[in-house]
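ok new one. same drill as before - structure tokens go in, u give me an amino acid for every spot. 120 of them this time. try not to just spam alanines like last time pls lmao
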């Protein structure tokens, strides 16, 4: 298990990717250990596991999803924003949609629905 990429990320003191975090959380849940014991055994923190466990649940199941405030700006005035895991940014022409905690598929479905409504 130590040869898992999430284990290497701990050894290399680098953040987990989403896929690495999902594998680490799955290993933790399958271990039957407490969060603290699993974290100590693998050289990480319980907080890291708890953070990713919550984050993965929110983004996978639509969990605590919420709409973010939107500000419409003229074309060419959009600016780069910091992006994190679970954030989806869609830019199409002058339209820019940013959502957090939603899957890319869900956002794509919303965009398709909006396009159909505007044509109809």
């Amino acid at each position: 298990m130590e040869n898992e990429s999430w284990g290497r990320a701990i050894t290399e003191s680098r953040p987990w990717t989403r896929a690495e975090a999902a594998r680490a959380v799955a290993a933790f849940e399958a271990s039957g250990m407490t969060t603290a014991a699993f974290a100590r055994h693998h050289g990480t923190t319980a907080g890291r596991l708890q953070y990713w466990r919550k984050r993965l649940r929110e983004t996978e199941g639509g969990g605590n999803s919420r709409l973010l405030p939107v500000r419409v700006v003229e074309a060419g005035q959009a600016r780069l924003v910091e992006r994190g895991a679970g954030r989806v940014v869609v830019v199409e022409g002058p339209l820019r949609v940013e959502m957090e905690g939603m899957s890319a598929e869900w956002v794509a479905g919303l965009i398709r629905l909006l396009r159909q409504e505007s044509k109809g």
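The chain has two domains: 5-61, 65-120. and btw Confidence is low (pLDDT under 50) at residues 78-82.
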